[in-house]
Design goal:
3 domains; single chain; about 15% strand; alpha/beta; Rossmann fold; about 600 residues; 24 helices; globular
Length: about 600
């Protein structure tokens, strides 16, 4: 692999490893690589881009990419590499892989994966990729984690040659290599060394104090917790007045009032993910916070708001600042309630896993705390500090957004918060839309917020939202369904619009079109411009209006917020398939977000920001 001008490969073990692998693929006869954009596959994509002698063919849709590779390999009568990121991206390869096996076409299928510690624990965009294609590939290997050691480099070079040889060997066919990568995924220098004793995190190196288990697991008795466990937890909550309750994505609508009662009893802020069904219930609650994704970006607030304890319900929330906050205070008790007996805990920070019904746990704890805990915050007003941050954050965000002259993606959600009627369903795409929903959607109306956050894929979102519309039709409900989606995800499931045409379904689609993968402009990949647009930005330049009209829908492109509000009100009242396109620019979107984070920080700490 030839050296790039914007990276230092020898100082990065991951890139030494993937560089050796891709180099050997070329030496073994791979001349073409079909690549789909993604984050986890970054090291391999960048290695392919730097490898002379291998031509790259970029594709947005993994299903199409795999069939493209099939045709390419069939005509060349030679193995072709096929690469995607982790999650359902790999599943979209499946039909073409089946065809390749049956027609004996040589493919070297490369799927990036989460590292082993992020598997089967509720981590985002992580599915079981081991032997994903079953008997439909000739050979499968879950590759060893990357290292820059002689043994590891000999191993990965051998693996590359063996994979190409097996794909070519008669009868030819597909082989599958699954490659797990840890972050950071970009090529900045990462010298390998063990931390010194002074640098070691005691919790990770030595375990928890007093020889207690790293994770204490408690099973339910009749749905709830055993009486002794309830007493232990109640004593813990009494002792720790600076606590937090986190409501992650879940679908149980009756959990919201139970969580609100528990939060009020403890005097704890209740941080509600937009997909938790706790944020927008139609019943305002003073403890429920909706803007934490913004104010937890303030280093000064995070440094001051030190928790004693965290109690989490549901899956891990979307917010990255919240995750970083939890990691910063990793030594504080983190109690995770998982009523299904699973392990929805990708942070590896939990001190307790409580396998019991969340509703019953809330009821048990409220009853246990009733005699000794008053419905008021602690003397230092811990809850009040978070509530003030919420108020100041929303004021700063609103004021700053209104000053923007061009369309801003996040404002789509603050506008929808005012426009959506009580009872509406808001379906949200992955990547940037769900993150902006988290930050900018503050409605207190009864709004059902849904998304595909199991594997976090961008595939099938139009079809999923139309399925909700079909359910409303079957139930004779007139509540509107609104989908907010990015242009790549819209393109990925364009054929899903056929359902609206065939079944006369109503769906209002807000299409945020920044001509590419907008989220990558926020990620470390953006610091490496040489191959950024081709591998990650992936602009398409498509005009979606003719496609929408082909399926009998109405398409409208808006240029200002007055037009947006008018188009939304018309779409909500008239029904049918209606697509409202909001065009933005990716680089500007990043700058506008950063201006908002700065405004929030200044609102929270005006004296410090002014240099006082």
């Amino acid at each position: 692999m030839r050296a790039a001008s914007d990276r230092s490969t020898p100082a990065n073990p991951l890139y030494a490893y993937v560089g050796a692998f891709v180099s050997e693929l070329r030496r073994a006869g791979i001349a073409h690589a079909v690549i789909c954009p993604g984050s986890r596959s970054t090291p391999l994509a960048m290695a392919f881009a730097e490898e002379e002698g291998i031509r790259i063919w970029m594709h947005i849709d993994e299903r199409s990419a795999a069939f493209f590779a099939l045709g390419l390999a069939k005509r060349l009568a030679a193995p072709v590499a096929l690469l995607c990121t982790s999650g359902t991206a790999a599943a979209n390869f499946f039909p073409a892989i089946i065809e390749a096996k049956l027609t004996r076409v040589p493919l070297v299928v490369l799927t990036a994966d989460r590292p082993h510690e992020l598997r089967d624990c509720g981590a985002p965009q992580a599915i079981d990729q081991n032997r994903l294609y079953g008997v439909h590939v000739k050979w499968f290997v879950d590759a060893a984690p990357p290292e820059a050691t002689p043994a590891a480099l000999r191993y990965i070079r051998t693996l590359a040659n063996r994979a190409v040889a097996l794909a070519r060997a008669r009868p030819s066919g597909p082989v599958h290599l699954n490659l797990p990568f840890r972050e950071p995924l970009t090529p900045e220098p990462q010298p390998e060394r063990l931390p010194s004793p002074a640098e070691r995190e005691p919790l990770a190196w030595e375990g928890r104090a007093e020889q207690t288990p790293y994770v204490r697991v408690t099973a339910a008795e009749g749905g709830g917790l055993p009486a002794a466990e309830v007493a232990r937890l109640a004593a813990l909550l009494r002792r720790h007045r600076r606590g937090l309750i986190i409501a992650g994505p879940q679908s149980e609508p009756h959990l919201a009032p139970a969580l609100q009662r528990l939060a009020a009893r403890c005097g704890y802020p209740l941080l509600a993910d937009p997909l938790s069904q706790v944020r927008s219930t139609g019943q305002p609650a003073a403890t429920v916070l909706r803007s934490y994704d913004a104010f937890l970006r303030s280093e000064r607030f995070v440094a001051e708001a030190v928790p004693d304890l965290v109690l989490r319900f549901g899956a891990m929330p979307t917010s990255k600042p919240l995750l970083l906050y939890l990691q910063r205070y990793a030594d504080r008790p983190l109690l995770v309630v998982d009523g299904d007996g699973g392990w929805e805990e990708p942070t590896q920070l939990a001190s307790d896993m409580l396998h019991a019904d969340p509703l019953l746990i809330c009821q048990q704890l409220v009853e246990a705390l009733a005699e000794t805990t008053q419905d008021q915050p602690s003397s230092e007003d811990w809850l009040g500090r978070w509530q003030q941050a919420e108020r100041l954050t929303q004021q700063a965000l609103r004021k700053t957004m209104e000053s923007f002259e061009e369309p801003f993606e996040g404002r789509v959600f603050s506008e929808l918060a005012e426009l959506l009627p009580d009872g509406a369903t808001l379906y949200v795409g992955n990547s940037m839309p769900v993150r902006d929903l988290d930050t900018f959607f503050w409605s207190e109306r009864r709004i059902r917020c849904l998304g595909n956050r199991g594997a976090n894929g961008i595939d099938g979102l139009l079809s999923s939202a139309l399925g909700v519309s079909a359910a409303h039709q079957a139930l004779a409900e007139n509540d509107p369904v609104v989908l907010v989606i990015g242009d790549l995800a819209f393109f990925h499931d364009l054929n899903g619009l056929m359902a609206a045409h065939l079944h006369k379904l109503s769906l209002l689609v807000i299409l945020i079109n920044n001509d590419g993968g907008g989220i990558f402009s926020f990620l470390p990949q953006a610091a490496y411009p040489t191959h950024f647009e081709r591998l990650f930005g992936t602009p398409t330049g498509l005009d979606f209006a003719p496609a929408v009209k082909m399926y009998g829908g109405d398409f409208r492109r808006v240029a200002c917020w007055d037009e947006f509000r008018s188009a939304c009100q018309e779409g909500l009242s008239r029904g049918g398939l209606r697509v409202i396109e909001v065009r933005t620019e990716r680089a500007r979107n990043v700058l506008l977000h950063r201006r908002l984070w700065q405004a929030v920080d200044e609102a929270l700490h005006p004296a410090t920001s002014a240099g006082v």
